[in-house]
Amino acid sequence: MTETAVCVGSFSSVKTLWEVRIQKINDELRKEKEFRERLMLVWEERATLAKLKEKVINEDGKAILRIEEEEWKTLPSCLLKLIHLQEWQLHRNSLQTIPQFIGRFHNLVVLDLSRNSIESIPKEIGQLTSLQELLLSYNRIKSVPKEISNCISLERLELAVNRNICDLPLQLGDLKKLSHVDLCMNQFTTIPSALLNMPCLEWLDMGGNKLQKLPDTVDKMENLHIVWLQRNEINTLPETIGNMKKLSTLVLSSNRLKDIPACMKHMTNLRFVNFRDNPLELEVTLPPCEDTEEEEEREMYGIEFMHLYIQESLKKAENLESCTSDPSPTINSN
What we know:
Elements: H1 2-54, E1 56-59, E2 62-68, E3 87-91, E4 110-112, E5 133-135, E6 156-158, E7 180-182, H2 193-196, E8 203-205, E9 226-228, E10 249-251, E11 272-274, H3 292-297, H4 303-325
Parallel strand pairs: 2-3, 3-4, 4-5, 5-6, 6-7, 7-8, 8-9, 9-10, 10-11
Antiparallel strand pairs: 1-2
């Protein structure tokens, strides 16, 4: 019994000793593997950073990161080593996300991530108080965060051809320097209230949306010079549009307009309009030009057409009023 117990005890001790040694060896192997992985990550990060540095150019005294037609679905954290960058130009790179660390690039003046596959805008973008241009057209963005209103230096905002944006946060009306907005080819059914409150807005493109009418308060955008509203579903224009005295270009082609309001004849700064492909009720034909070159340059549904249409429309209204106010004389049978 005693010898058996000693043998069992010795076997258990040897087993325990081997288990400890095996565990120690495994721990050392694991640590070595982790070290190699960390070392590999360090080398990969250095290689990536070196690749990014090759993409940095200097133009007009600005440090610009320019990457086009490469595969960058995400941006690595080592990009923070280039915190001095003033401009990002990343096009056609299949980029899916804007990193949350974007807010740490306080020197950014231009953020151009057009033609990628971005689905959302992180709220951290609101930390870019020096940003002047935010260009995110041709992506897959569905909504716009209110934090963009904190980009107090923003002058240009482009969100064209995202196809799913249908509104803007009201807070964006606080952007006092924003002068250029491109929202074409999305899902807007009305002009966002935020745009009506932007004091410096001069250029607006909302073509290719689902606008059915313009708000009666459209004249609040009193500094607008150029408006593109082609390929919508607009069927009427408010009388208040005549108050937009600074408007020089107005494109309304391919809508559902049946009439042109007479108030537009008072828009003296208007130099270019386009009413082509609208079901206008009156058939108006411009008189022929004697000068062949002038005839070729003439916009058949442009400013001359608009004034002639309004003139004919007013004549028609006067004739109708005259017919209504002057009844036919009564025939005396005696």
